[in-house]
Predict the 3D structure of the following.
Amino acid sequence: MANDASNVPSTWLGTCDLFSLEGKRAVVTGASRGIGRALAIGLAAAGADVVLIARDTALLADATETIHRHFPNRSATAHACDLTSVEEIAATVAAIHAQGPIDVLVNNAGVNIRTPALDVTPEEWQTIIDTDLRGAFFVAQSFGREMVKQGRGSIVNISSVGGHVALRTGVVYAAAKAGVIQMTKVLALEWGKHNVRVNGIGPWYFRTPLTENLLNQPAYLAEILARTPLNRVGELHELIGPTVFLASEAASYMTGQTLFVDGGMTIYGF
Ligand code: NAP
């Protein structure tokens, strides 16, 4: 009886439910604009209550108001925090946990300063590394500590194609994002036994305040498109599906992986 539903394990049924974040509480860093804002809205659309972190309180208020307007049944709260300060991270994580446990962390905040290697200053190095690598690590450590205690959690680190292949957009950013990709693997290794999964997303070009100056240069944009098999830059909503997937039960046997959401850029050898 090949089609007898009673022979099908219950875990195979209701596939769409696997992607639901109903009843989960998710934190997104760098959620005041760009990719983080889109991901916070997308996680709320998938059913999660969301907690947004960034420095700009007016933009955070706009993002939470947008989520309340579209998803009146979801909770959306904001915490202003400078992620270059380990003390601020600790205080923010404590305040968030005082309101209840966190199931999902999207570790997204990041900056770039695109200076040629010979001209990089110590201050530029410090700014990028403090936000993109040191900040990302201590955010993961702080939420990860609670997830390990509670015996469940899913972390999605936002790195970049620039942490995987050599780009012209800055050596310090490349080093930081390569660090995030490797950090994703080691945290996955350490925390797997506690049922905490750690994965990542590596975007290619998406139009945000971080990239719009570059994408507004027609010659530069043409070079990008020539290296992108899908022949276009990404739309912000195209990061939501992969992030929800990694955050959800649909990816329950995946850890340590970084998915490149890149229109095929990283597989383009010639
Ligand atoms: P964006 O528009 O410039 O947004 C960056 C976010 O990070 C903002 O919400 C910003 O909020 C926050 N942030 C920066 N420094 C912070 C700090 N010290 N403390 C707290 N929050 C901080 O950039 P995006 O394009 O959305 O990029 C988001 C992530 O994706 C970054 O990690 C970036 O490297 C990565 N990425 C982007 C692309 C792309 O094409 N856009 C490609 C590859 C990777 P406040 O200023 O309010 O603090």
Observations:
- Residues 30-36, 54-56, 59, 81-84, 108-111, 131, 158, 160, 203, 205-206, 208-211 surround NAP (CB under 6 Å).
- Helices lie at 34-45, 57-70, 86-98, 122-150, 171-191, 212-215, 218-226, 237-247.
